[in-house]
Amino acid sequence: MPLNDRITSVEKLRAWTDKIPFHYEYTAGVAGEKFLRGLQEGRILASECGKCGKLFMPPKMYCVDCYVETRRFREVGPGGEVLALAKSSVGFDGRRLARPKTFVFVGFKGVTGGLIHTASGEGLEIGSKVAPRFRPRPKREGSVLDIECFVKS
Fold first, then answer.
1. How far is CA 20 from the centre of its chain?
2. Is 131:78 a contact under the CB 8 Å cutoff?
3. HEC sequence for 28-61
4. Which domains does the chain have, with CATH numbers?
5. pLDDT by residue (tens digit) across 75-88?
6. Among positive and negative, which fits the CA dihedral 56, 68, 62, 67?
7. What is the pLDDT of residues 100-145, one digit of tens each?
């Protein structure tokens, strides 16, 4: 096949659909499991560097500054501060919601990082003090959804 014919045939191909049969199962890891078990108990945990004392959320296995393993976990909060906020009128399925949903990035004093979650209540804005509202203890499963939402405190 001449070069010009090959270029033309390649240019005509734009996309194709196919399936690759992969199956993955992910674990939360050591730090993630500790964090999720804390949520199940109604506590929010951050990992702590034993060398520099920095706290990380979500918990990390290694300090990003010292490169040492973080072996300690410390409870933070329960209250935090809204550092970013967004409202959505569209659900995950693309349909319009009856009431807009509020998403917040919550930071905790002395912690690098934070949590993204939903929030409920009037008057929420950046800088608002919030606290987690946990699901009833028997319904907790060790998931970030053990926090129903954050509410203004």
1. 28
2. yes
3. CHHHHHHHHHHHHCCCEEEEECCCCCCEEECCCC
4. 26-152 (2.40.50.140)
5. 998 899 999 999 99
6. positive
7. 999 999 999 999 999 999 999 899 999 999 999 999 999 999 999 9
How far is the C-alpha of 97 from the C-alpha of 91, rounded, in Å? 6
Residue among 83, 88, 81 nearest 103 (CA) = 88
Give the pTM: 0.79
Residue 95 CA neighbour count, 13 Å, CB half:
4
SS3 152: strand
Task: Compute the distance between CA of residue 13 and CA of residue 76 in angstroms, rounded to an integer.
Answer: 54
Q: What are the DSSP calls for 71-131, one per residue?
A: -EEEEE-S-EEEEEEEEEEE-TTSPEEEEEEEEEEEE-TTEEE-EEEEEESSS--TT-EEE
In Å, the largest CA–CA distance within the chain is: 73
| Locus of tokens 């199956």 | 23
- Under a CB-based contact definition with an 8 Å cutoff, are residues 109 and 130 in contact? no
Residue 25 pLDDT: 76
The encoded tokens of residue 26 equal 């992910």
